[in-house]
Design brief:
Low-confidence stretches: none
Structural class: mainly alpha
Shape: globular
Radius of gyration: 21 Å
Number of strands: 0
Distance between the termini: 30 Å
């Protein structure tokens, strides 16, 4: 256990954020690797996988409920020096993750075809996306177990073992993806299905490694069979904090689905270009997200220890660091967007859409860094509802004008990116207003 109620706050933030940034980069690279090798199969395959992989945002929304609730409440327990409560929270989180894994597989396989019908009008794109999803769904389902264990570590101020496991699982994915897609060594080329299967096998490897870590190593929180029976009071505590955060990511999924719906009439190049550009954007936002994910542990322990001045300082330092990082990445996208995209596709149409997307959407980076810092503060104090209201406002201000734009005869793709920038700026102002009220 790492005591975050003493010592330098910037040092704590950076110490936690660096391994977490690597871990999140690994998670993003799962999809980037799929896009890289699938891009070699052609525009249709890339468009299918891009559209299908958007479901990961929905799963991320569900895992965030468990992630935020577990990390926040365990950090509060650590701040209060209440190890018994931390162990109850951890074991109940594991139980919920197992139930959610089974539920995700059942629902996912039953709705795959219907989902792809919504995401594209092209029959070839829908077929490729469905093939990928059938093999990718186990990877998504296993994220619940991974999140339960890594969130418990983060709540206690420990993040390095999770990062190491994710790095190893990434290596497994890098090795398996081309072998399964192209049939190297096996003689059986699976195509896009091979990319999905490689991700699922890598996720299974990560779960087994993390489980072994908790079973073999003595930790502040440990697996205890006596605590693995359902405890509804603890479930209510976890979801009371986690639900708004999960709902916030669900709104992000809805936003992405709206974009795919709006641009599907422009063909496979637009779908593939947006899919590629959005994945690169997610990778570029990782430094600010890592700071924001480190912030709840620092703010949470100090909140539990009743040190409000350190909670405020944590927010200010997170804001300063995030904005500085995002300013540099904004400049990179404005200066050389093609540098970030060239290795993923040789299709000129796809690259043109992706480069145009990054050249405009990069103006969201600094505002997004501010929003992430506000969200991390809300999580740290255990009140995640303001963050949800902020995201809901952004979705409404985006969806209504988008519906109008798509009905206009002169509608073009870039209008969607400009609308996104404008609505993120509105969300930033609201988030700052709400976080000031919380910190008072």
């Amino acid at each position: 256990m790492e005591d975050l109620t003493k010592g330098s706050i910037p040092k704590h933030l950076i110490k936690l954020a660096v391994p977490m940034a690597i871990g999140m980069l690994v998670h993003t690279l799962y999809l980037m690797i799929d896009l890289y090798f699938v891009g070699q199969l052609g525009e249709t395959s890339l468009a299918g996988v891009s559209a299908a992989a958007n479901i990961s945002m929905f799963v991320l929304a569900l895992t965030q409920m468990l992630n935020v609730g577990t990390a926040t409440l365990i950090s509060h327990a650590v701040g209060r020096k209440d190890q018994d409560d931390a162990n109850v929270l951890f074991n109940q989180s594991l139980l919920i993750s197992a139930l959610m894994t089974a539920l995700m597989l059942a629902i996912g396989y039953s709705l795959t075809t219907s989902y792809m019908q919504i995401m594209s009008m092209d029959s070839s794109v829908k077929s490729e996306g469905a093939q990928y999803l059938y093999f990718f769904l186990p990877s998504l389902a296993l994220q619940f177990s991974i999140v339960a264990m890594t969130a418990a570590m983060r709540g206690t101020g420990i993040v390095k073992p999770a990062m190491q496991v994710q790095m190893l699982s990434l290596l497994v994915n890098i090795v398996l993806t081309p072998i399964l897609i192209h049939g190297w060594l096996t003689g059986y080329a699976m195509g896009v299905a091979g990319a999905g299967l490689a991700s699922s096998l890598s996720a299974l490897f990560a779960v087994l490694m993390l489980w072994r870590y908790f079973k073999r190593m003595t930790q502040y929180v440990t697996v205890d069979k006596a605590l693995l029976t359902p405890n509804l009071d603890t479930w209510k505590r976890l979801f009371k904090v986690g639900f708004p955060a999960g709902a916030e990511f669900l709104l992000m999924f809805t936003y992405m689905a709206l974009v795919y719906w709006a641009i599907q009439g422009f063909g496979a190049s637009a779908t593939a270009g947006f899919g590629l550009g959005s994945r690169v954007m997610q990778a570029l936002l990782l430094p600010a997200m890592a700071i924001a994910f480190a912030l709840p542990a620092v703010a949470g322990q100090n909140f539990g220890a009743q040190l409000p001045h350190r909670v405020k300082d944590a927010f200010r330092y997170a804001l300063f660091i995030s904005c500085g990082l995002m300013a540099g990445l904004t400049a990179l996208c404005l200066w050389q967007p093609d540098l970030l995209l060239g290795g993923f596709s040789s299709d000129a149409g796809v690259l043109a859409v992706s480069a145009g997307f990054l050249g405009i959407i990069c103006f969201n980076f600094i505002p997004s860094g501010i929003i992430f810092s506000c969200s991390g503060t809300f999580q740290g104090v255990g009140n995640t509802w303001p963050s949800l209201w902020s995201s809901a406002t952004r979705l409404v201000t985006f969806a209504v004008p988008l519906m109008w734009l798509t009905s206009q005869p002169d509608f073009y793709v870039e209008q969607v990116w400009y609308l996104s920038v404008a609505t993120v700026c509105v969300q930033t102002c609201l988030s700052l207003f709400l976080v000031r009220r919380i910190l008072r």
